[in-house]
Design goal:
Elements lengths: L1 H5 L21 H17 L3 E8 L7 H19 L1 E8 L6 H11 L5 E5 L4 H6 L24 E2 L2 E2 L2 E2 L2 E4 L1 E4 H6 L8 H13 L18 H10 L6 H6 L12 H9 L10 H9 L5 E2 L6 H7 L5 E4 L12 E5 L1 E5 L6 H11 L4 H8 L15 H11 L3 E3 L5 H15 L5 H18 L3
Parallel strand pairs: 1-2, 1-3, 11-13
Antiparallel strand pairs: 3-12, 4-5, 6-12, 7-11, 8-9, 8-10
Helix pairs in contact: 11-12, 16-17
Organism: Paenibacillus gansuensis
Main location: other
Protein name: Probable sugar-binding periplasmic protein
Amino acid sequence: MKKALLTLAMLVMLGTTAACGAGGGNNGNASNADNTSKETTETTAAPQKVELKIFLGGLDRFREQFDSYFEQFAEKEKKEKNIEVTFNSEYPGAENAPQILKTRLATGDVPDIFSLHAINDLPSYYKAGYLTDLSDQPLAGKIIDGIKPIVSMDDKVLAVPMESLAWGYLYNKQIFKDLGLTPPMTLTEMKAVVQKLNENKVTPFQLSYKESWIPQLFLPLTVGGLVNSSHPDFLDKMNKDQGSFAEIKEMFGIIDLVNANGTDRAFESGNDDGAAEFAMGKAAMWVQGPWDADAILKANDKAEFGVAPLPINDDPKSTLINVSVSTALAMSAESKNKEVALDLLNFILDDQASNDLYQSLKFNPVSKTHTFKSYPWVDDASVFVNNSQFYLDPSIPSAVKDESGKALQSYFDKKMSQEEVINDLDKTWKDANAAGNK
């Protein structure tokens, strides 16, 4: 997997053949008249009308880019197939989108195409029969080999990857340069960085806890780092009701350091506010991913930020980059417009147009046909990935992730103790096991 993540395979060359026939004979004028009649009939035939229902949870910040791309697809579908496509698109926020989608799928009110988290959601959605097998589609042969397993199960490609991520935390490169700082590799080194920032009257961390999914980010970062170093059996034990977060209580070390050295009014700042404040240099670091690159650069197009692994303890082997495919697009098994929905998913990885789409979204390349240059923050993370200092995003039940965000909000607000957070997460994981939502 690690080798595949670092190497693009050869491009899959897909050829299409078109056969054309020519009529002949002595009665050329009659043939020409017949052809003209047929062409007139074809061009004046009423187009087939199709409305696609699209559910893009957590992608509301990219509405403009997606809506524009869908219009490009509609033009293509009309020209090539005489199908007039309209879109009923929803962009619910990341806070509520997962529950809304689960309710829709369970009640039969299904969108044709919907977004999901490839690692968190794909197993349970596949098991429930909600997903269409895309393995025989042209898009399947285009997905980079290292990414394809993350959007597949039982050797079936089940989703189109959108956000391929290498992330940890963001840091302001200009501030680090001005103060002679480099990304720390241990918790003790991070404490020294924090002290240097405070001495120079620079707030160390951006805190944006209005939305619970943001403090939730501590969970995959700390669990991932520890599972891939000192606690390799933690996930297995939790999935068998034999473990406890008490075993990795050291995760609170970095959480406490961040919470004690952050911006004011954390509960008044959401993701958009946080991106704007971080872009303007209000804090030197933000426990957040590069998926906010577009929002940061919209707030300040001169902002220079990097990506580095988050130190958890004083073991550098635990300081690793998280590699993941978060957002992916799937087609409902119950879609009533399967032909057009499949056409759209294939267009998402169109050899030419998708380069502009992914670049406008500030996403990493995911297709063998993507040729756009990677971004500086991608290159920063790649240094660690190329040095094997990374792990695949840990598979944690969605319910546990959701609960961790709320619990860590309460922990920051001193309404829950460490022990209460641990007990809460332990119980939520056991409930998820019982419900079969691993």
